[in-house]
Amino acid sequence: MDKQALIEKVNAFLVDEFEIESAKITPNAPIKETLELDSLDYVDLVVIIEEQFGFKVQGEDFQQIISFQDFYNYIESKITNKVE
Amino acid sequence: MNRVVITGMGIHSCIGTSLEEVKSSLYHGKSGIILDEPRKDFGFRSALTGMVNEPELKGELSRRQRIGMPQQAKYAYKATQQALEMAHLDINFLAKNETGILYGNDSSAKAVMEAIDQVRIKKDTTLLGSGSIFQSMNCTVTMNLSTIFKLKGINFTVSAACASGSHAIGLAFLFIQQGWQDRILCGGAQEINEYAMGSFDGLGVFSVDELNPTQASKPFDKRRDGLIPSGGAASLVLESLESAQTRGANILAEVVGYGYSSNGDHISNPSREGQLVSLSRALKQAQLNANDIDYINAHATSTPMGDLIEAQSIHEIFGSKIPVSSTKSMTGHECWMAGASEVIYSLLMMQEDFVAPNINFEESEEDMPKINIINKTKHHSINHFLSNSFGFGGTNSTVIIKKYNG
Predict the structure, then answer these.
(1) CA of A58: which chain B residue's CA is closest?
(2) Can you give the CATH number for the domain in which B388 is found?
(3) Domain locations in chain A?
């Protein structure tokens, strides 16, 4: 999957799951504040990523994900490692 | 002690999802029972059920509000919306003026079963997501509704089998009567999915009259062959008379009696002695005589033993004249919800001066005492009605409601 396709896929499920306007998702926007994530929402984010990309996020990994760009990069790295 | 009045009600059931629709079904004796074929593949002995559509709440509630709601909580939300609207209670008022919730519910089988299936496959509890726990607990309805409607008073679920909804009303009545709360949302909810009813079906107590779904529920009739599971939700707003008058609320009726008892005997068989205690206690608390009651909404579920014992209890206290009907002839057995929904059905009859028919009743067996079972819609003025609910474990509940006359 190329990076643009990955970004589109991630944005699509975030818009669907968290019911926000797609225009609010920009690469440098803070993911926690934009999606209004609370501690319970992170559990659901783990579920969606597992469904969509087939790997399980470890809770501590979220600490380094601040922006949407960080989120895309993180998923890309996980998928790449998985393929390898 | 405070007088306790009803200022709002709402219903989401197999005979209608608005008070107007339900009133019309009751008046015309319309059944909500269908044959749900997939139940046969699931292993059910009987595929008969009351059918209640699950409301779509996307766009109405936020994701966080919806994610912890199983079927019966969605039903309860819709019923509560109606009740609060009728009572002119909005979220801003509820957030600032302490209001409680006591709601009957005694299972959340689908959520539990689906979570178990999922974790057996995934071998990872995190992958159940954040909604599973809130959907799975017995108190799911009170958890969800108290959060959504900003309720800040007493808050717990009443789990008392098929008397849950009735006890919820009774307890709300006591809390307000004693001055501990001004206002309580109460009611009952019941899921209709196959997970919830499978083990009940397994007892062999459901009607197998599958060729005639709308004629299968036959409370008190000698041909009765079992109950039909059903569900939905019913909500009522109870408040002190003083609170209702201060708010300028429209008063629908007054709660005047709550009787209760436990059989302390067999886990599923009814007990005439237990029922008599509950009925007598309700009359005593209401300071009424048996002949003050104008209508009895029977618990009668259409099982051979249950209906016979209740007819004996009613006959012993009330004799043969007071009109009796079981609305379960139309709705099926709404289980955890029934005690609340049947108060609403009876309130609608009280408002419109009629007794809804016990449809499918022709005649009872020889050894059933003769009580006045109404099988055709009867125009009749109701000043007081009594509603019975009996449940597994021998829990009995009776409430008496009076027309509000100032």
Answers:
(1) B126
(2) 3.40.47.10
(3) 3-83
B180 lies in the same domain as B222: yes
Helix (H, G, I), strand (E, B) or coil at B152: coil
DSSP-assigned letters across all residues of B275-332: HHHHHHHHHHHHT--GGG--EEE----S-HHHHHHHHHHHHHHHTTTSEEE-THHHH-
Name the CATH architecture for the domain at A3-83.
Answer: Orthogonal Bundle (1.10)
CA angle at B318 for the pair B279 and B289, rounded to the nearest 5°: 70
Which residues in chain B show pLDDT less than 50? none
Note the pLDDT tens digit of each residue in B359-397: 999 999 999 999 999 999 999 999 999 999 999 999 999
> CB B64 to CB A41 under 8 A?
yes
Query: Using CA atoms in the order B132, B233, B311, B44, what is the torsion angle rounded to 10 degrees?
Result: -50
Instruction: Tell me the C-alpha distance between B69 and B32, whole Å.
Output: 24
B14 an active-site residue?
no
d(CA B122, CA B119): 5
Q: What is the pLDDT of residue B406?
A: 85
Q: Tokens 């999922």: give the residue.
A: B118
Q: Do B383 and B347 touch, CB atoms closer than 8 A?
A: no
Residue B154 in 3-state DSSP? Answer: coil
Which positions in chain B touch A38 (Cβ < 8 Å)?
A: 64
Q: What is the mean pLDDT of chain B?
A: 98
Q: Measure the CA–CA gap between B204 and B206, rounded to whole angstroms.
A: 6
* Residue B333 among the catalytic residues: yes
| Candidates B118, B125, B127, B132, partner chain A, best to mutate (most A CBs within 10 A) | B127
CA B158 to CA B169: how far, in whole Å? Answer: 10
A43 touches chain B (CB under 8 A): yes
Does the pLDDT value for residue A84 go beyond 60? no
B170 with B53, same domain: the answer is: yes
Tell me whether residue B212 is exposed, middle or buried, using C-beta atoms within 10 angstroms of its C-beta: 0 to 12, 13 to 18, 19 or more.
Answer: middle
Same domain, B154 and B301: no
pLDDT at A81: 72
Q: Do B213 and B265 reside in the same domain of the chain?
A: no
| Cβ–Cβ contact A20 with B under 8 A | no
Active-site residue B12, yes or no?
no
Which residue has 């999915």 as its token pair?
B193
Tell me which residue range forms the domain holding B377.
256-403
| In a shared domain, residues B264 and B132 | no
pLDDT of residue A83: 58
Q: Is residue A82 scored above 80 in pLDDT? A: no
